[in-house]
Amino acid sequence: MAKPIVAIVGRPNVGKSTFFNRIAGKRISIVEDKPGVTRDRIYTEAEWLNNTFTMIDTGGIEPDTQDIILSQMRRQAEIAIETADVIVFMVDGREGLTASDEDVANMLRRTKKPVLLVVNKIDTKDLPSSFYDFYQLGLGEPIPISSVNSLGLGDLLDEIIAKFPEDRDEIYEDDTIKVAVIGKPNVGKSSIINTILGEERVIVSDIAGTTRDAIDTPFTHEEDKYVFIDTAGIRRKSRIHENIEKYSVIRSFTAVDRADVCLLVIDASEGVTEQDTKIAGYAHEQGKSTIIVVNKWDVVEKDTHTMNQYIKDIKDKLSFMLYAPILFVSAKTKQRMYQILETIKFVSNQHAMRVQTGMLNDIIGEATLLNQPPSDKGKRLKIYYATQVSVRPPTFIIFINDRELTHFSYTRYLENKIREAFGFEGTPIWIQYREKGGDE
């Protein structure tokens, strides 16, 4: 199930980043008392009353300072309208209603998305007379808050989660493998999907997509059911050009949330870029299976070392997901395209694999004999036993004597030993520690 997306829209210096940081619980956005200081859109996961959602701070969508403020706000609003489930339109209660506010309100009124009009910088219980001017925007009851003083934030969060779509369940059967095709624009995501769907043995369903996205493509292959969640490109009606890559990151995040397996498509002529790293990192953190697909391999000039050098470069830049298989393909020439579906099915099974508790503890016991657990001030970490508690991703709890004695490097060592014994190719492994007799 995908997490709802909440986009914060408003002109510079109305307090979007301060609000964002308050809700996120940590200082993520740059906050400075100067218009347009946030130079990049920031994303974070937030939670309120057991509702988790992705929040987007759109403060710096257009970094070109020569562009006029209104143009920046239009782009913010366009991206929010395209991607968000709920839009928070923030205005400045001290400065009052402006022409820019009215222009964006006109755009937001035409969308079918729920919009909450939030008047920031209301620092007292007595509302200023200018507050009532915001009713003219035609976006319903303005909600007064103070991000700096944390006033009214709980009421606003209540309103936000009340606007989330009620039915976010997938329409697909449990045994359907959901595949997100993610990556930068113009790397060949759609071509890869079209090539796979063009295979004679693939039957494409004509049923509707999910409520979230009309470009889901369900199909069957050798009795296995799949759905491609395509993140390729921007809808043609959109006028966003400068921010196409940033926009694609939101689409990719949404697709990752819904997926079992992620195909991270990389352009062979470019290699791994910063955008690829961001998207891959999100898939890893969400515990998704991932396959790295290097497309356009046919255009690369090769010698006997080319592929090995590419693999080394990918592993260097995506060192946090060494478990991910790497495929070198060409959607144009169909080179190795047959391997994609085979690998999707394989890593999906690995993602859902369970191991027996007895076998797991044999491996853990052997690992501790080969390499003793760490110690501190004469006290050594003791591992009592381990068990797998869930799948997708495979999650293990290891019962120990003292969590403070655990160390990242030893956790990685245990993960490697588990992988050597059982595989788990293509999937992250989550290891949690629990003190025996205590809470997690």
TrEMBL record:
Q: What is the primary gene name for this protein?
A: der
| Gene3D superfamilies named in the record | 3.30.300.20, P-loop containing nucleotide triphosphate hydrolases
Residues bound to GTP 2: 183-190, 230-234, 295-298
Which SUPFAM superfamilies does the entry mention? P-loop containing nucleoside triphosphate hydrolases
Q: What is this protein called?
A: GTPase Der
**Which keywords fit this entry according to its UniProt record?**
GTP-binding, Nucleotide-binding, Repeat, Ribosome biogenesis
User: What top-level branch of life does the organism fall under?
Assistant: Bacteria
Q: Which family does it belong to?
A: Belongs to the TRAFAC class TrmE-Era-EngA-EngB-Septin-like GTPase superfamily. EngA (Der) GTPase family.
Give one Pfam hit by family name. Answer: KH_dom-like
Q: Which residues form the EngA-type G domain?
A: 4-168, 177-352
In its UniProt entry, the species of origin is given as Anaerosolibacter carboniphilus
Which biological processes are named by the entry's GO terms? ribosome biogenesis
Briefly state the protein's biological role.
GTPase that plays an essential role in the late steps of ribosome biogenesis.
Q: What would you give as a GO molecular function for this chain, any one? A: ribosome binding
| UniProt-annotated binding residues for GTP 1 | 10-17, 57-61, 120-123
What is the protein's quaternary organization?
A: Associates with the 50S ribosomal subunit.
